Amino acid sequence: MEKVIIVRYCEIHLKGNNRGFFERSFAENMEKALRGIRHEIRKQSGRYLVEGFDEALSEEIVERLSKVFGVHTMSVALSVKSDMDEIFRAVAEVSPSEGTFKVETHRADKKFPLNSMQISAEIGGRLLDYKKGLKVDIHNPQTVIGIDLRENGTSLVFNGLIRGAGGMPVGTAGKGMLLISGGIDSPVAGHMIAKRGMKVECIHFHSYPYTNMQAREKVEELASVLAGYTCGTTLNIVKVTHIQEEIHKKCNGEYMVTLLRRFMMRIAERIAKKSGCQCLITGESLGQVASQTIEGMTSSGSVVESLPILRPLCGFDKNEIIERSRAMGAYEISIRPYEDCCTVFLPRHPVIRPKMADILAEEAKLDVEGLIKEAISSLEVLKL
Ligand code: ATP
Ligand code: MG
Q1: CA–CA gap between residue 166 and residue 34 (Å, rounded)
Q2: Which of 176, 198, 206, 358 is most open to solvent, judged by the fewest CB atoms within 10 Å of its CB?
Q3: Whose atoms come closest to the Cα of 283: which ligand?
Q4: Distance between alpha carbon 315 and the CA centroid of its chain, in Å?
């Protein structure tokens, strides 16, 4: 009896001619997730089998694979010879000692003397005799025991399905640049887009020494959490201290956040293009804070010359975002106190619905191009 893990994938079959590409990306991503653990991944019709690992590590493997997008469900299974006694021994091992159950058999091996109904009935009957606390319930069982008779003369026996992360394999839908702050929203935005199969790189802006080193470490940690779902990521770090000082010195303070955002978007676009990213991604959600009105988005979006801006959180309430942040394991990091550069030199009354003509008039007081070049020269790149 060998422990194996069955991995079933989702949506991939929808992709017709691209199927091979999707499956290769998916298998590669699983390999990356399992790096450092001895194992083999074998493809079978419509699913993968992870085999040859140290049985004590099965939970760790499931845990790691649960972050791989494209995984629909998983089962920890026992692999045995296709023989009724062997199958029953495995079923007895994976089943609980009480409650209701049913047995579901799938028979790929059409030469096996019993059909799937007969196998389920026979094994279910033996289990009832063997574990007195169990009862059959066909319609609403607490436990579903799966038996899979494969064509190669072995059978897989498992108790239930573990839900995977869903979505599409990362790397099958291009690459985007996420503007990541230390807040709750942006990591969630990156997670959502990665789930659709996009590779995600990150860019963060800081105003050291006005913002401190803890703020930066926090962003590194958040990007690392995200990297667990995106098969690694790159964190680009750019210093915007001088830009903020210049705005503070020369412009109407009410426009600090509006103007800074426009710088961030311009810089993000340039670095995105250099790294082959095809879009920008932000954690903005409509109307959540003063700077995220549609006027604010129009202002920050209008300086981006040729990339689309994805704002996956636009339609979400804060509560929904928090739920997702918790589920991805970022929330506890995100809520640690820190200073974002947007709160440095924060005016008492930031302009809420900025008018384009006023923004342009304020911006005209600055050497926009020179400040952008200077900020980009501070670029640091971390591989996570
Ligand atoms: P978050 O929780 O992601 O910080 P938020 O609701 O606090 O979002 P803002 O602080 O207004 O909203 O930021 C809106 C978006 O702008 C962020 O989601 C992020 O994409 C981008 N952003 C803000 N500050 C930074 C920063 N310092 N570096 C990179 N991107 C930033
Ligand atoms: Mg924020």
Answers
A1: 18
A2: 358
A3: 1
A4: 19
**Secondary structure class of 249 (helix, strand, coil):** helix
Sign of CA dihedral 273, 275, 279, 284: negative
Q: Encoding tokens for residue 35?
A: 């790096």
- pLDDT tens digits, residue range 287-322? 867 678 899 999 999 999 999 999 999 999 999 999
Q: Please name each of the domains of the chain with its CATH number.
A: 2-163 (3.30.2130.30), 175-383 (3.40.50.620)
Task: State the distance from the centre of ligand 1 to the C-alpha of 284, rounded, in angstroms.
Answer: 7
Residue 77 bridge partners (DSSP): 4, 158
Q: Cα(28) to centroid of ligand 1, in Å? A: 32
Minimal CA–CA distance to 282: which of 219, 214, 189? 189
Kindly tell me if the per-residue pLDDT of 12 is higher than 70.
Answer: no
The atom number, within ligand 1, closest to the CA of 341 reads: 27
Sign, Cα dihedral of 225, 226, 231, 233: negative
Phi (first) and psi of residue 266, to 5 degrees: -65, -45
Query: Looking at ligand 1, which residue's alpha carbon is closest to its atom 13?
Result: 284
* Centroid of ligand 1 to alpha carbon of 292 (angstroms): 10
In this structure, which residue's CA is closest to atom 20 in ligand 1?
282
Does the predicted model carry a pTM greater than 0.85? yes
Q: Within 6 Å (CB) of ligand 1, which residues are found?
A: 179-181, 183-186, 204-205, 264, 282-284, 288-289, 291-292, 340-342
* SS3 (DSSP) at 47: strand
